[in-house]
What we know:
2% strand; 239 residues; globular; mainly alpha; single chain; 2 domains; two-stranded antiparallel sheet
Amino acid sequence: MNYRLIAIQVGDLLKYYTCKNEIERAAHSVFNFSREDFPNGAITSERAKLIHDWILTLAKQKMNNDERNELLRKFLRLITPEDKVAEVEKILREAGVNLHIDETLNEFYSKNYHHLICKHCLQLYKQRNYFHAVFEAAKVYNKMVKEKAQSDKDGYALMMDVWDCKGVLKITPCKTETDKNVQEGLKFLSAGLMRAIRNPTAHEPALDWPISKDDCLDLLSFISFLLRQLDKAVYYKGN
């Protein structure tokens, strides 16, 4: 496999369709190693250089080719827009990368989930463990809200407090009626996730609370949406 060729061609292709933060988030959600620097004077785009360096760092890792190719596909799937997937696959195929992917994983990848969903839930989904994939996603959201809000509360009480118009996390200025509606809506969506999804999956056996594949995909999309709102939220101390 010619990873250098892949690194150069994919970086050049995607440099206009992603950003440095997205590349770094995707890499940290997929890889368990640090990025190395591979000087290349012909690459002038910072985004292309990031993609280039992550792929070449992956190429240096000690693992079998199947494992390496799977990590490469996961990384590229996270940073590739839908209309560029075919072009990326063509680059991989021509460089000798086996593109066989389980059809069930295609459904997961096609959702373009938040990087934390990919990091914490992909393996569970791959194992068809839909119940625990959803539970993990709900736990991750709860943890990330706690950390950003710097709160000791948990679950339903946490969401009702920190996402309130008088709370510490804001996605709107909470001045106009529309601002307040959006803020309150996110509060109730987050609190509803805790009551309807996290609490039952925490306290009920999986056999008594089955979650289908379709419900799993939909719920992961919902939690992914909430995580993206959390990324945009601003912390207001002292509210």
